[in-house]
Write a structure and sequence with these properties.
By secondary structure, this protein is an alpha/beta fold. It is 28% helix and 19% strand. Helix 2 links the parallel strand 3 and strand 4.
Length: 637
């Protein structure tokens, strides 16, 4: 039978189940990655599991998110992570070595392998022909302990790219087009698999820009074939030996096929406050711009920065624009330093940061009041820049650089200059000295005062008796649920971090929820479609759990967040009739009688909300129901 790339890789890794879309399967994980903001909790959980060494082929712990280090908390976490890596057999990529996804692509990704990462943009690795999946830290901890990863077997959507991009149009415009077609919700349980004659015009980092932002559509992952272009990239990294060819069979069947003509694409922008609000740059032309941020884990590769340097060479930034550039990795930064492009960026007026997440997660470079900020990163959620009033537009490096010069949103095709076509080095300058190998000795684990214990839940109660503590709308992101930015330094300290749950939606939430919890009532969150979009941060489940949230009743959930809720014993419920959402208000009393018994027997559920009967669903596998009944994964022992 003819097979897709997705099916081929999944089937090679199947531990339980068959490749039947919609059914739960378990797969073997070859590689894992963690980053520091999710990693401390993941390793606390890994320690609690109690194995002596990681069981994967490769596990890498990156430090790239919390590197601002105001106060002792971040540095203490880094020391903790380094000592854990040393003891348990994990490679440790130190702060300053680069953003996890970019470094992983450069140094470790291998076609045909599976990668599970405690970061939602782990699908970046799909640019190399591997299956990279984002998950909560606990799932990654389990994978490091040698356990399989459970997921719904995906439906595969083929996206054929035809022709070639015109000058000034690039990979970011391709994925923004894909976002325009698919939106940011309703794609749970799918994989985007790319094909078509246009692939031969796209390098691995360009492909990785596309797979990186597939995450914004909510798909399980995105994957490209591994071909001669993949081989060339690995060769330039000194890793040709890691190459294998992976292609889809000619007649492979897909759930849906989409065709995109690359030469018809134009510069695009995702408008505030969602990556799915796509317009053409031309439609926005002329809008004054205050800040331009280039980099993050997407569009921060050597080629991206060389194009920007080519555009800005012999130009100065507009005086009213603050220009921030965050290279994706120390490798990228070193290569542009060695070839002189860094000097061109500095001469144009760029502020170069270390290769970290930085501006992308709002823990530095927040823009001025009411700013228009153009960014090449992947998320423009409300409040994510660190200010509540910024209008963030996501664009390509070309469109970003054009605005740097003019001070206004500008279609880069209107700059009237020649499109820079940088030569790719045959061999990148590489230096892995900031990736520390483990000694596997009985290293003492360093625990600073910021590091608490991994919290766990109590088993699901007989009945739920509580209150709708908050009612929120559609597409609530994990940034709404628990902000990152300046609050992210409390990732290892759940009681402290929990004070900020729903901070940007409703400042009173945390206190109210804690008071209900302390008076013995359960907290219930009511939400619209796509609840939990965005990051993999399991704190969006752990902190509500700490505040006594027992269930979320939503029209629909996004994949990673739903899994995190289950892992921490919070029941993800959906409306049988979405219209009931309208009848519910914050403060309504909720009773779900005998929920424990009904869940155990997989029987239909009913809630009584403000005295009205509401039909609700809890569509889970047997395994998931068992986890929930135990109060989450850690409750299962
Ligand atoms: C993000 O882009 O939102 C993050 C910060 O990388 C998160 C992980 C986290 O919250 O630590 C993600 O994408 O998973
Ligand atoms: Fe870091 Fe931003 Fe990428 Fe998340 S999306 S990993 S915060 S650069």
């Amino acid at each position: 039978m003819a097979k897709t790339i997705t099916q081929k890789i999944f089937e090679k890794h199947l531990v339980e189940g068959k490749f039947e879309p919609g059914k739960e399967i378990a797969v073997k994980i070859d590689q894992t990655l963690t980053q520091d903001a999710t990693g401390t909790m993941a390793y606390l959980q890994f320690e609690a599991i109690g194995v002596s060494q990681v069981k994967t082929e490769l596990s890498v712990s990156y430090v790239d998110h919390n590197t601002i280090q105001i106060g002792f908390e971040n540095a203490d976490d880094h020391r903790y992570l380094q000592s854990i890596a040393d003891r348990y057999g994990i490679l440790f990529s130190q702060a300053g070595n680069g953003i996890c996804h970019q470094v992983h692509l450069e140094r470790f990704g291998k076609p045909g392998k599976t990668l599970l990462g405690s970061d939602s943009h782990t699908p970046t690795a799909g640019g190399l022909g591997m299956i990279g999946i984002g998950a909560g830290g606990l799932d990654v901890a389990l994978a490091m302990a040698g356990k399989p990863f459970y997921l719904t077997c995906p439906r595969v959507i083929r996206i054929n790219l035809h022709g070639a991009l015109n000058p000034w149009v690039s990979a970011k415009d391709v994925i923004l087009k894909v976002l325009e077609i698919f939106g940011t919700s309703g794609n749970v349980g799918c994989v985007f698999e790319y094909g078509g004659d246009g692939l031969k015009t796209l390098s691995v980092p360009e492909r990785a820009t596309i797979t990186n932002m597939g995450t914004e559509c909510g798909v399980t992952t995105s994957v490209f074939p591994s071909d001669e272009i993949t081989r060339e990239f690995l060769k330039a990294q000194g890793r040709e030996g890691d190459w294998t060819e992976i292609t889809a069979d000619e007649d492979a069947g897909y759930d849906r096929i989409i065709d995109i003509q690359l030469d018809e694409l134009v510069p695009m922008a995702a408008c505030p406050h969602n990556p799915g609000n796509v317009k053409t740059v031309q439609e926005l032309e002329g809008m004054e711009v205050n800040q331009v941020c280039i980099g993050s884990c997407t569009n921060s590769s050597y080629k991206d920065l060389m194009i920007v340097a080519g555009i800005l060479k012999a130009n100065k930034k507009h005086p009213n624009v603050s220009l921030i550039i965050s290279p994706g990795s120390r490798q990228v930064l070193s290569n542009i330093a060695l070839n002189g492009a860094l000097a061109d960026l500095l001469a144009a007026g760029a502020r170069i940061t270390e290769p970290i997440c930085g501006f992308c997660i709002g823990n530095s470079q927040s823009p001025q009041t009411n700013a228009v900020s153009l960014r090449t990163s992947n998320r423009n959620f409300f409040g994510r820049s660190g200010t509540k009033d910024a209008q963030v537009y996501l664009v390509s490096p070309e469109s970003a650089a054009a605005a740097v010069i003019t001070g206004r949103i500008t279609d880069p095709r209107h700059l009237g200059m020649e499109y820079p076509q940088p030569q790719m080095p045959e061999r990148f300058y590489t230096d892995d000295s900031m990736i520390i190998g483990p000694s596997l000795s009985s290293t003492e684990i360093y625990r600073g005062p910021n590091i608490g214990k991994p919290p766990s839940n109590t088993p699901i109660p007989e009945s739920i008796q509580g209150v709708v503590t908050i009612k929120v709308g559609d597409k609530i992101t994990t940034d709404h649920i628990i902000p990152a930015g300046s609050r992210m330094k409390y990732r290892s300290n759940v009681p402290e971090y929990s004070k900020f749950v729903f901070e940007i939606e409703d400042e009173g939430f945390a206190k109210r929820a804690a008071a209900y919890r302390d008076s013995g009532r359960h907290n219930i969150i009511v939400a619209g479609i796509g609840y939990g979009q965005g990051s993999s941060r399991e704190h969006a489940a752990i902190c509500p759990m700490f505040l006594g949230v027992k269930a979320v009743l939503a029209k629909s959930f996004e994949r990673i967040h739903a899994a995190n809720l289950i892992n921490f014993g919070i029941i993800p419920l959906t409306f049988a009739n979405d219209a009931d959402y309208e009848q519910i208000d914050a403060g309504d009393e909720v009773i779900i009688a005998d929920i424990r018994g009904l869940l155990a027997e997989n029987k239909p559920l009913k809630a009584k909300i403000n005295g009205r009967e509401v039909d609700i669903n809890c569509s889970l596998s047997d395994r998931q129901r068992q986890i929930l009944l135990a109060g989450g994964m850690l409750g299962r022992g």
